[in-house]
Amino acid sequence: xxxxxxxxxxxxxxxxxxxxxxxxxxxxxxxxxxxxxxxxxxxxxxxxxxxxxxxxxxxxxxxxxxxxxxxxxxxxxxxxxxxx
Length: 84
What we know:
The protein is mainly α. The protein has one domain (2-82): Rho GTPase activation protein (Phosphatidylinositol 3-kinase, Chain A, Orthogonal Bundle), CATH 1.10.555. Helix content is 70%, strand content 0%. Helix 2 runs antiparallel to helix 3. It is globular and about 35 Å long. The model has no long low-confidence stretch (mean pLDDT 95).
């Protein structure tokens, strides 16, 4: 709920088009390069928060046999709250 109510999304409105372009890249390698480049453009507090959150979500995904939160499930839940 915290991320949903932020006045500026964690993945900022200014970078929305760049994130959208990154997701639409034709190859996985190109997608990763574009995503990394876009993430590095985030303001420092957003970047640090995202890094911490991604480590937490990776732990959840690594324990998906217990949490039932595979990467796809996490994306469904989190994506709308991080990028509007």
